[in-house]
Amino acid sequence: MAIVNNKNEMGQVVPENGQKWDSTEPSRGSFSYSQGDIVPLLRCHTLIWYSQLPSWVLSGSWTRSTLQSVIETHISNVMGHYVGQCYAWDVANEAVADDGNWRDSVFYRTFGTGFLAISFNAGQKADPNTKLYYNDYNLEYNGAKPDRAVELVQIVQKAGAPIDGVGFQAHLIVGSTPSRSSLTTVLKRFTALGVEVACTELDIRHSSLPASASALTTQGNNFANVVSSCLDVAGCVGVTVWGFTDKYSWVPETFSGAGDAFIYDKNLGKKPSWTSISSVL
Ligand code: XIL
User: Fold this and answer.
1) According to its UniProt record, where is this protein mainly located (predicted)?
2) Residues with pLDDT less than 70, the chain
């Protein structure tokens, strides 16, 4: 915990799982914060997402009106619990599929894109002072997915609902990260809409392990490039990593054979990635 509690090392933290719907409202109307309360909060994640939903949400037979009330109750309870503590909330997460279509979910099936305005309006009501974000991965390369995410922001804005930011998750692979200028370009597509942006879940994984010394150097350069892209964009407010030590990570469980995606090694030693980032700050 010495690293986490040192403000020179970490300015903000995000609970990896403890604020997700299956943790906060595992059965209807019964709210639990035992997992979400473990860390002091700043970036809060996430409310409306197709994944990690409890089965009562997934398998309910909803009408628009019953699901709207479930969404509003969930958002008001969870955001109400953390009111005043979160710099930002990921109100909606991963609503766009990788091919640029809208992602299938209980929310999309019931409302089409209408669930977005419902959720962002509920977010503003629950905590008027936090930043309300849309958050997704694979926005870092220009293509069909960021095109759709741009449309998503515009849909929320046209509905008169509040949206303050877009989170680029940035789960990347060593050696195939976007160039500094191409990432800057896509970040600016969003700031041009009047929202701020941030890298919210940055990790850069090695596809195979163990990583060679040169792969570790490349990883460091890749991290430095992402941070530099954010620094290049006036409306890019920060970079958050999705874990900091290779000792604990979601990466090997999700991407078979891959790993060591962070900036401290398994023994909490600083990797070339740490040094490269600090050299561009
Ligand atoms: C991941 C967590 O890190 C894992 O522990 C969990 O098993 C699955 O979810 N995008 C997101 C995060 O928005 O919530 C995901 O977190 C990683 C991908």
Assistant:
1) secreted
2) 1-5, 39-41
